[in-house]
Amino acid sequence: MPTSQKRHRSLRSFQLFLGLGYTEKQSGDKRIKALGGSEVTRASLYAWTLTSVLPARRETSWLGKKLNEVRGDGWTLKGLKESKISGKQKIIRILFKVVRMLFYELCKELTS
Predict the structure, then answer these.
(1) Which end of the chain is less congested by CB atoms within 10 angstroms, N or C?
(2) 31: CB partners within 8 A, 6+ apart
(3) pTM, whole model, 2 decimals?
């Protein structure tokens, strides 16, 4: 058994705190995954994404450059913008990516 974990257990808690965590709701036989956490924070992040991340003029910022880098998952902001996914789903996916990047940046700062 390895001594170090390769995943961050607190990432899900961080996402939930920012309003982007999934919670499972159950009623009888139905199980539904829904976004949980603070709706106010999620709405603020949503508005910030519309004004600061998505416009083409923002692609020269540090965040735009990082989002357009091809990572191991093959995900890029440009590729997502060109996909056939509906508008709100695109923004939610971008929010998940940005929150994950923020979490890893904070972890890097805390460990150094």
Answers:
(1) N
(2) 24, 25
(3) 0.72
What's phi and psi for 23, nearest 5 deg? -120, 150
Which letter does DSSP use for residue 22 in this model?
Answer: E
Structure tokens at 99: 């929150």
Q: What tokens appear for 74 in the block?
A: 């093959």
- State the residue for tokens 């309003």: 19
Question: DSSP assignment, residue 30?
Answer: E
Q: How far apart are CA 17 and CA 20, in angstroms?
A: 7
Q: 87-111 and 39-48 are packed helices; what angle lies between their axes, rounded to 10 degrees? A: 100
10-residue mean pLDDT series, the chain (112 residues): 63 88 84 86 87 71 72 66 77 85 88 84
| Rounded to 5°, angle at Cα 91 from 54 and 86 | 110
| φ, ψ for residue 72, nearest 5 deg | -65, -25
DSSP E strands in the chain: the ranges are 21-27, 30-36
Tokens of 87: 């508008």
